[in-house]
Design brief:
2 copies of one chain form a homodimer.
Chain A lengths: L1 H31 L3 E7 L5 H12 L5 E7 L4 H9 L2 E6 L8 H9 L8 E5 L16 E7 L6 H4 L1 H5 L3 E5 L4 H4 L3 H11 L4 E4 L8 H8 L6
């Protein structure tokens, strides 16, 4: 079996290297077109779509926003984001557990990038696999929900290490689940002291303005 | 890029085929030793560990229980299950997003199988990747939490198709998140009419006895 693992690792490295090269190309494409792009990662039901919706609502009157929504099947997320006021492309990955740069690059070819100010990429709902595949966005945002329990940060260090920003969502449910957002924040600072952390509730719109200020300091809302 | 994908698919099929063969070996091993084994899958924070703990508490006085807890890092889950009264082996998968049969087979070699009645395998917290890797257990149980929102069943059909039993957990939080367990159950019946569904709250111990009756009909508690 050892030989098999060796083979697997070589190929995986090769894929990651190619993905990294492609991420640099995409990054340059975003810079050339002055697009602020964000990769939104997080587990199923953490509130990635809800977060994008709240941001779109605040930004849509002054900015052109585009979203790429990754999911195994269905266009539920795309429809919800479109309703909030952004142009959206749904990518159905089938059984694939993360978005990669080849898919993003192909999708960008169909979009008039000159017309876009802000791009949100909603990654596939999975707190593990997307971390290894940088997509060339300006920042990577990881969304976690307080309802996921007290241990999820310490148990998934790799994803949090890859994050520039972490959003602790659903903090309005803290009293009902017995998990303190401050405790999660302490764990996050231990795992990745460089990440900026925001405590939010997409339902109550708590914390959204503070996050917006971090993403677009020049934006007056 | 097309050639690369072709290569990837061939290798993946090969891995899945080998995993399937190994799953059959493990299944025979469980049958020969009269072990009731269950693969518990589900997203991060769905309540897989809590469910195992509640089942262990009910069963430990009359049965010898062993648990294999899969996680990227830490032994938090293993410690919690051990405290409830089961022998536990923690498997840290590093960056690997699911358990496979090679890992399970190696782990079983260190255990005296003759002394075990019931084995719980807690898979890595991920609603996507573990579905493809059958582990040779008697049944596969998928745990979802009501806090993950209203769309998670329709958006992840493959995992639910692989399930014999689905546990809808955290139903006590239904009023606070506005998601009805009955609606999720309807979605589940659409996606996989053969799966048996239980609505549970590990916190209130609601639904645990009904699930136990399904797992071990002969067990009187």
């Amino acid at each position: 079996m050892e030989e098999q693992y060796e083979k697997e690792i070589v190929i995986e490295t090769d894929f990651l290297k190619k993905n990294e090269q492609c991420a640099n190309d995409i990054e340059n494409l975003f810079k050339a077109n002055q697009i602020n792009a964000y990769d939104i990662m997080g587990s199923i039901g953490a509130g990635k779509t809800s977060l994008i919706i709240e941001l779109v609502k605040k930004l849509k009157d002054k900015h052109n926003i585009y979203a790429i929504a990754g999911d195994l099947t269905t266009d539920i997320d795309a429809e919800r984001i479109k309703e909030a006021g952004a142009d959206v492309k749904q990518i159905n990955t089938g059984k694939e557990c993360h978005l990669d740069t080849t898919t993003i690059k192909n999708t960008l070819q169909d979009i008039n990038l000159k017309e876009i100010d802000i791009l949100f990429v909603e990654n596939v709902g999975n707190l593990i696999c997307p971390a290894d595949y940088r997509l060339g966005t300006k920042k990577r945002i990881v969304v976690i929900a307080i309802t996921e329990g007290p241990y999820m940060v310490l148990k998934h260090p790799y994803t949090f290490l890859s994050a520039d920003i972490v959003v602790i969502n659903k903090i309005d449910l803290s009293p009902y689940v017995g998990v303190e957002p401050d405790d999660l924040e302490k764990d996050l600072h231990k795992v990745n002291p460089k990440a900026t952390v925001f405590q939010c509730s997409c339902r109550n719109r708590e914390g959204i303005d503070a996050l917006l200020k971090e993403l677009l300091p020049e934006f007056r809302y």
